[in-house]
């Protein structure tokens, strides 16, 4: 039931989950017209010693822009280069985190009309501390044509604010393109930043929805996420400007990588397709056919055999076995747009004709679904205040119990008391999720939004996970999700709360099994959204298995103030705290603290028949 929704916002992928350290590695971010802006690349040396610009001489057809360095100085006294040489450097995404003893794969393409002696080094932000270096040397003939160079650099020091330098003291002209630095130590070896990936894995997500909401659409269609432009060798991907959130993406984190991440996490991929709509444009139903075919091709890329036209592209990328893509979402909350319903019908019919088992998600409300406007699921987004989110624990109580189910793919508390991720916001969301648990017969999936924020580029608050180049922490709503990660596949039990003159409690109960030791538990979760401590008498009836005398525990998420947040300075100020629960039995008293989420895990006796 519970999963994650990834959007390329807040530099969540570029400069975040995707471990590439070089920003604007292909020099395409400045646009196709040259000379262009090479930001964040900067020049080492002055105009008397080096002239740097871009031209359209790259060997990559879809990435025509390359960097041209004309070195005017040399090693001779008459026009000697400064100590260390001249060239360019890249600071990455607000500094590269280079770790002592770690190995980094460096890749770049070079062309030159002269002999080459180019030093590639990882250094401190001022260039004075050398962490690792390699010198590329070759005769005039060696680099007359574009040549790919790859090597490993092992760092001798730690530095959380490093940069990549390319320097020379030899006069002549050198062209550079597609410069990459990737740590070898990534999650599952697939290019994802390890610490951030583990934060996701620890949530046990059942699905991964991608590549975003507005990011999938774009402000304008020319900047939408185009899956086919993001597959194949990374050097050949053109990249695109993420105009929805205001920054360039090299598309190293592309369609293939999202599918790979879902597989690595053991999650079902949920692909949000661009259906011909951006925030400011629409393709009419009369001309939508080519975009429909493009989406069907994308499904073939994911699911087709290795000898199919698009399946062979996937196989060439190292994954001959098909990915298990079972969910496709048509658009991003676009039901209000002029052509959505007509276009949706085209996508639905074409996808079902080719892949009848795929679950198709509509952007329209469940009340609009009918035999003439079919859908397997419908998408719901909830952004609201903490008090309103708490009240929405009953949002689906009166929903008709007939298909299709909802996917609440984006929910978040926003507003004044949300801050950058407060305790009270997490508690309101927990109450909402308890409501979804209780209504899991009409709600299939749920995920919060946004998932990540690079603290250097906070486009949206709050977010579940905050990071910079070398640190990370979970906000209270991230830790809250840990108390729901065992709900997927669990058995729900009916609960009632009886308390006078206090309407700030919400509760649910499930039985779940620990995958490691196969122990079974009854988990009772209680959200106290008010400022009053409450003593509760818990009464359990109807369980086939008794409650063991020992082995139970309680876990509480709370803090001294409802507006408390985590930070880099106090990353665990608001986190769940577990302790043994000594009085576990079918009738027992517990105390629930103000502004808290409490989870009581009662260890059950083993069943004689192997089930609860």
From TrEMBL:
Q: Name one GO molecular function term.
A: alpha-L-arabinofuranosidase activity
Question: Under which name does UniProt file this protein?
Answer: non-reducing end alpha-L-arabinofuranosidase
Q: Where is the signal peptide?
A: none
**Is Secreted a UniProt keyword of this protein?**
yes
Q: Which organism is it from?
A: Urochloa decumbens
InterPro entries to which the protein is assigned, alphabetical: Alpha-L-AF_C, ASD1_cat, Galactose-bd-like_sf, GH, Glyco_hydro_b, Glycosyl_Hydrolase_51
The chemistry this enzyme catalyses reads: Hydrolysis of terminal non-reducing alpha-L-arabinofuranoside residues in alpha-L-arabinosides
Q: Which UniProt keywords apply?
A: Extracellular matrix, Glycoprotein, Hydrolase, Secreted, Signal
Give the UniProt family note: Belongs to the glycosyl hydrolase 51 family.
List, alphabetically, the PANTHER family matched: ALPHA-L-ARABINOFURANOSIDASE 1, NON-REDUCING END ALPHA-L-ARABINOFURANOSIDASE
Q: Where's it found, cell-wise?
A: Secreted, Extracellular space, Extracellular matrix
EC code:
3.2.1.55
Residue ranges constituting the Alpha-L-arabinofuranosidase C-terminal domain according to the UniProt record: 409-596
């Amino acid at each position: 039931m519970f999963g994650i929704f990834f959007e390329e916002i807040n530099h969540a992928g570029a400069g975040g989950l995707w471990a590439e350290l070089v920003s604007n590695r292909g020099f395409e971010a400045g646009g196709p017209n040259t000379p262009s802006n090479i930001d964040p690349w900067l020049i080492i040396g002055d105009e008397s010693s080096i002239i740097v610009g871009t031209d359209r001489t790259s060997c990559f057809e879809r990435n025509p822009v390359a960097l041209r360095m004309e070195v005017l100085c040399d090693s001779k006294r008459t026009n000697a280069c400064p100590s260390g040489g001249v060239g360019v450097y890249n600071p990455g995404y607000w500094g590269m985190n280079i770790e002592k003893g770690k190995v980094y794969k460096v890749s770049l393409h070079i062309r030159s009309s002269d002999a080459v002696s180019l030093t590639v080094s990882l250094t401190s932000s001022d260039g004075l501390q050398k962490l690792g270096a390699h010198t590329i040397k070759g005769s005039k003939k060696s680099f007359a044509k574009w040549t790919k160079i790859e090597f490993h650099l092992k760092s001798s020091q730690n530095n959380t604010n490093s940069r990549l330098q390319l320097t020379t003291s030899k006069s002549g002209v050198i062209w550079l393109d597609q410069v990459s630095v990737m740590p070898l130590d990534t999650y599952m070896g697939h290019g994802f930043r390890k610490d951030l990936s583990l934060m996701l894995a620890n949530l046990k997500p059942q699905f991964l929805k991608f590549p975003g909401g507005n990011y999938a659409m774009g402000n304008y269609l020319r900047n939408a996420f185009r899956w086919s432009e993001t597959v194949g060798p990374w050097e050949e991907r053109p990249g695109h400007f993420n105009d929805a959130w205001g920054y360039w993406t090299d598309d190293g984190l592309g369609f293939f990588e999202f599918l790979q991440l879902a597989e690595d996490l053991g999650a079902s991929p949920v692909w949000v397709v661009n259906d011909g709509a951006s925030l400011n444009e629409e393709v009419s139903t009369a001309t939508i056919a080519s975009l429909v075919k493009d989406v069907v091709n994308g499904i073939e890329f994911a699911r087709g055999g290795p000898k199919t036209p698009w399946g062979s592209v996937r196989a060439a990328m190292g994954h001959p076995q098909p990915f298990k893509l079972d969910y496709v979402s048509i658009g991003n909350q676009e039901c209000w747009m002029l052509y959505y319903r007509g276009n949706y019908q085209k996508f639905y019919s074409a996808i079902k004709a080719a892949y009848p088992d795929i679950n198709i998600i509509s952007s329209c409300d469940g009340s609009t679904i009918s035999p003439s406007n079919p859908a397997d699921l419908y998408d719901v987004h909830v952004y609201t205040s903490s008090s309103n989110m708490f009240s929405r624990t009953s949002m689906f109580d009166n929903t008709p119990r007939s298909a299709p189910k909802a996917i609440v793919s984006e929910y978040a508390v926003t507003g004044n008391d949300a801050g950058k991720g407060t305790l009270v916001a997490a508690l309101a969301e927990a109450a909402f999720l308890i409501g979804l648990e209780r209504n899991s017969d009409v709600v299939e999936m749920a995920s919060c939004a946004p998932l990540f924020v690079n603290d250097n580029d906070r486009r949206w608050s709050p977010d579940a996970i905050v990071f910079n180049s070398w640190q990370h922490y979970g906000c209270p709503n991230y830790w809250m999700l840990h108390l729901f990660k065992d709900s997927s596949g669990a058995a729900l039990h009916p609960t009632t709360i009886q308390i006078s003159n206090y309407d700030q409690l919400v509760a649910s109960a499930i039985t779940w099994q620990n995958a490691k030791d196969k122990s079974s538990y009854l988990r009772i979760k209680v959200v106290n959204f008010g400022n009053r401590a409450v003593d509760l008498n818990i009464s359990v009836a109807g369980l086939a298995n008794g409650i063991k005398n020992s082995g139970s525990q309680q876990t509480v998420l709370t803090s001294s103030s409802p507006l408390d947040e985590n930070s880099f300075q106090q990353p665990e100020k608001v986190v769940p705290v577990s302790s043994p629960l000594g009085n576990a039995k079918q009738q027992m008293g517990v105390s629930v603290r103000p502004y808290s989420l409490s989870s009581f895990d009662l260890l059950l006796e083993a069943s004689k028949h192997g089930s609860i």
